[in-house]
Design a protein that fits this description.
Blueprint (H helix, E strand, L loop, with lengths): L1 H10 L3 H6 L11 H4 L5 H14 L6 H7 L9 E7 L2 E6 L2 E6 L7 H8 L3 H6 L10 E2 H30 L16 H19 L9 E5 L11 E4 L15 E4 L14 H13 L5 E4 L3 H7 L10 H8 L2 E4 L11 H8 L5 E4 L3 E6 L2 H24 L12 H12 L7 E4 L6 E4 L5 H17 L1 H4 L2
Helix pairs in contact: 1-4, 9-16, 10-13, 11-14, 12-14, 12-15, 14-16
Length: 455
């Protein structure tokens, strides 16, 4: 500061007159600090040097903070900063970057140049000042153009990561020393909690019935595909992720888990897993009301929304042949299920549903069992007389099917197209199956404790 003061006294003498009048040499506004006492000669030069040294206009916020006053409204300079020969001045919100090189004959003019607009500064080039201007807005525009592709790529990567990590049903990582791959462990957790959810829905019968899930990537295995099922002898409320058995289509167990394979369950489920590539989950139960409907010649009637949703999955019937422990029955089971249907009424036995995943299989079984409950109670209340039941006509059934197709839709919203500016109507579809399964999963975790299921 002392050195700058001496230099200012020698080089910036013209500023003494400005300082003595109490005007800021940077913005030409009235400076409260300078007006507090007469300033002239060396004092003015010292103030000017201090302003140069610390890069602060006395009419700006720093002066106001120091003296408890407000910046002068006449000021057009919000801040001044000096770093070597390269300086930056903000003029009415617009930053101008310039470089000043003083000549012997232009020292006095340099200070005046600093207090002028960018247009005035340009005029000093003819007097020996080498000034190069770069408009800040143009610089920002170039930087923005350079950053936009990077930001777009980063946003796309973020969206992809969110899409990959987002899931309605998340499960814990495999425990240390887990013998299963991360993908299989996730499937085991999902299937284990499915058994617990089935227990809570009363879709269990002591140690019987099965829910099976095809192991991801097992088609490429020499003995594949493989599927997971429960260890015969364990209740649905006891099954854990690690207790599930992995078997081939012929019933051979694939390590490391070992247990009991119930043949009727293996025959029924392996038939579907082996014949339908689109099916990864098979759910079978002996729910009381659903099994009662399986024993009637009317079968499932379209008496409710729930029945409509179950029927929309495609429903077939398979006549009862006895316990499903004969492998010879498998071709007939597949033939009656068909290539696309996902609900099979095993007459005098119980319902079976197939799904692309456990979420679909769960929701289909939930709608089916609920529809059967309604049907059993309604028909019982009228003594089985269907003439006293509101059975929809064919026209109404067609309308029920059309509305069922839009069951998952959210209210339509209008979205403006960036290119054309036109508004387009967008309809989002909810993941009802995933939401239903997630609700059941959370309930099972609360009841049994996640630590007792995912082990």
């Amino acid at each position: 500061a002392i050195i700058l003061s001496l230099l200012a006294y020698v080089l910036l003498v013209p500023l003494q007159d400005i300082s003595s009048r109490g005007n800021c040499c940077f913005c030409k506004g009235s400076s409260t600090a300078m007006n507090r006492s007469p300033v002239s000669g060396l004092s003015g030069a010292l103030i000017t040097a201090a302003m140069l040294a610390f890069g602060t206009c006395l009419c700006g916020p720093a002066e106001a903070a120091a003296f408890g006053t407000s910046p002068s409204p006449a000021s057009t300079l919000s801040s001044v900063s000096f770093v070597g020969a390269r300086s930056s001045i903000s003029l009415d919100g617009e930053s101008t970057i310039f470089r000043v090189r003083l000549s012997a004959t232009a020292k006095a003019s340099a200070t005046d140049a600093m207090s002028t607009s960018s247009t005035d500064l340009a005029s000093y080039a003819a007097e020996g000042l080498n000034i190069r201007f770069t408009e800040h807005q143009q610089q920002l525009q170039r930087e923005k153009q350079q950053q936009e592709p990077q930001q777009q790529q980063q946003q796309l990567r973020q969206e992809e990561e969110e899409e990959e990590t987002y899931s309605l049903n998340a499960y814990p990582d495999p425990p240390p020393g887990c013998p299963f791959s991360p993908a299989e462990w996730k499937q085991r957790c999902a299937l284990a909690v499915s058994y617990r959810a089935a227990f809570m829905e009363d879709w269990h019968m002591n140690i019987f019935n099965h829910i099976t899930l095809k192991v991801e990537g097992s088609d490429a295995e020499p003995s594949g595909p493989h599927f997971l099922l429960n260890d015969y002898g364990m209740g649905f409320d006891e099954i854990t992720a690690s207790s599930l058995l992995k078997v081939t289509l012929d019933g051979t167990q694939v390590g490391p888990s070992r247990g009991r394979v119930f043949k009727p369950g293996y025959v029924l489920h392996s038939a579907v897993h082996g014949a339908r590539d689109d099916v990864h989950a098979v759910w079978h139960c002996h729910h009381i009301d659903a099994t009662a409907v399986c024993q009637t010649k009317t079968g499932l009637l379209p008496l409710s929304q729930e029945a409509t949703f179950a029927l929309a999955k495609g429903l077939s019937y398979h006549p009862y042949e006895g316990s499903a422990n004969s492998e010879e029955e498998r071709p007939r089971i597949i033939a009656n299920l068909g290539p696309t249907n996902k609900v099979l009424i095993l007459e005098d036995h119980g319902p079976l549903v197939a799904g692309e995943n456990l979420e679909e299989a769960f929701s289909s079984m939930w709608f089916l069992t609920r529809a059967c409950q309604y049907q059993v109670r309604s028909t019982s209340s009228v003594g089985g007389d269907l003439s006293r039941i509101h059975v929809p006509c064919e026209e109404t059934r067609d309308e029920m099917d059309r509305r069922a197709e839009k069951f998952d839709e959210a209210p339509a919203i209008k979205v403006e197209c960036k290119e054309s500016g036109e508004e387009n109507e967008v309809v989002e579809k909810h993941d009802t199956e995933g939401l239903m399964f997630a609700c059941a999963r959370r309930a099972a975790e609360r009841k049994f404790g996640a630590e007792n299921v995912y082990i």
